[in-house]
Amino acid sequence: MGKIYERITDRLRDFITGQPVFFVATAPESGGHVNVSPKGYADTFAVIDDTTVAYLDLDGSGVETIAHIRDNGRVTLMFCAFGGSPNIVRLYGTGRVVTPLDDDFDELIKLFGPHPGVRSIIVVRCGRISDSCGFSVPFMSFDEDRTLLDEWAGRKDVQQKRAYRSKNNRESIDGLPALRAEETDPVARHS
C-alpha cells in the first residue's frame, strides 16, 4: 500500500510532472477556512531538487494559499492518477511565497512556461513525501488545458490587473493578509 520517501525519486518525479492537474491544500493557523485549489497547465509546476518543488501562482479570484503560507507555511500538494496505474502522491511541506520583488524570482521564473497572469511562485520544501494506492480514484481522460485563465489575464492591461489584485488579492476570505500593496503590480515579464 502506501510508502514514505526521503526524497522525490525519479519514479515519483515522472509521475507528478506527468499529471495534468494537482491540488494544493492550506489552512490558517487558528480557525478559518481550509482551502483546496486545483492547478492545471503542466508548464506551471517544477521539481527543483529531491525535496523541493515550485509552482507558478497565477491570477485568481482568491488568494488563500498565499495568505495561509504567510500565516504558517504549511502546505500539501496532491497528485492523482486518473489514468494508468492507480497512485496518489502527497508532498507535505513548508511553503514560501516568492514575488517579483524577491531576489530569486528572476531565476525561478525561468522554470516555467509563459503565462500572462503571474502573481508569485510558491516554493515548497517537502518534509514528508508519500504515495498511496488510489484504488478508488476514477478513470478520467484529459482532453486539453482550458486556456480561459491565460486569455482573461492577457486581456487585462497593467492598471486593470493592479486594480483586480488590489480588490481581490489583498486578504484571504478570513481576513488574513495576502498580497501587500507593492505586490499587486503585474509582472512586467512572462515566465
From TrEMBL:
What domain of life is recorded for the organism? Bacteria
InterPro entries in the cross-refs: Pyridox_Oxase_N, Split_barrel_FMN-bd
Q: Identify the stretch(es) annotated as Disordered.
A: 160-191
Q: Which residues form the Pyridoxamine 5'-phosphate oxidase N-terminal domain?
A: 8-108
What SUPFAM superfamilies does the entry give? FMN-binding split barrel
Bias (Basic and acidic residues) = 180-191
Q: What is this protein called?
A: Pyridoxamine 5'-phosphate oxidase
